[in-house]
Target: Zinc-binding dehydrogenase
Amino acid sequence: MTLCRYWRLDRHPEGNTRFERFLSLHEEACAPLAPGEVRIAVEWLSMDAGTRMWMSPRTDGYQPPLPLGSRMVGLVLGRVIESLDPAYPPGVRVRGFGQWADVATVVPALAGLEVVDETVADPRQHFGALGMNAWTALVGVREVAAVRPGEWLAVSAAAGATGSLACQIGRNLGARVVGIAGGAEKCRFLLDELGVDMAIDYRAEDVSARLSQVPGGVHAFFDNVGGPILDAVLGNMAHYGRVAICGMIAGYDSDVAMPGPAKFDQVLMRRLRIEGFFIPDFLERGAEFLPQLRTWLDEGRLAVRFDETQGLENVPAAYERMLTGRNIGKVIVRL
Ligand SMILES: NC(=O)c1ccc[n+]([C@@H]2O[C@H](COP(=O)([O-])OP(=O)(O)OC[C@H]3O[C@@H](n4cnc5c(N)ncnc54)[C@H](OP(=O)(O)O)[C@@H]3O)[C@@H](O)[C@H]2O)c1
Model:
């Protein structure tokens, strides 16, 4: 009999702290697999800011709210231990949407389950340079923000998982990069390890005043945050600039919709294009993204710092760490 420990969503969270008030840890025997299901011994869990939207009761988000009493969902990386799908035999390492659990049970098509490449030296890179955050950064920078060599790209939440990859992808595509992040240590990381051209500490500096120093203005903005940072950038965009709306983390601690930007008039004044995008819409293009990302990884041009917590029982603390900005790089939990 296989036992499974998992986190259950009991209440909708308030704010972005102390998730153990809204989640509870349970242990029970796994039910026999249903036809087509796959069972995974989870090695790592990915902590993703977007998951916070699933925990909210909002019905106008990008997916319906997770019903209270459900197992908490999230990306998992681990080995198949039992399978009723011959495409995922026991022993293979896979990544997909599972549960915050030590043993995840999934339907491969619904989970976006993939067998990962075992030749990658550090398997965590399947949550890093080869993972969903990297796909998001690649689509956002190259296709939505359509950055061109020599242009200025600004990135918010730049020291986090998605932002740090967006900065490097912009740099690799020949752009000059401005990273916006909270704190001096994050700005040093951006300048020294990611090689951005300008780092702005939004907690200590006037973002708009610093951006006004970008010669000719910001051509492309990869926004993870929304709110006051989006306003500061809109007022400093170059004419015909592009804004890729990747996330709005400044509003994820609330159950009400985030108001639009105060400087929305700049969309007209500067002839801007603003476009939201959502990586699950691009999942079938993974095979197209991976060769470029793998090349950059192997060349040392796509570095990922992992912020790793040990143990399923510490998932709420790791999740809070990420949402409250105490992380540099990708937050994961090792089981
Ligand atoms: N569109 C998509 O398909 C897609 C896919 C993946 C991720 N995303 C989005 O990408 C963003 C980053 O997610 P992630 O999972 O990679 O997390 P992450 O960037 O590793 O961690 C979140 C970061 O957000 C910053 N932050 C939190 N609250 C903030 C606020 N009020 N104002 C400014 N910055 C704040 C914090 O950094 P500071 O210390 O710098 O504040 C924190 O480190 C999220 O908005 C997420 O929804 C979107």
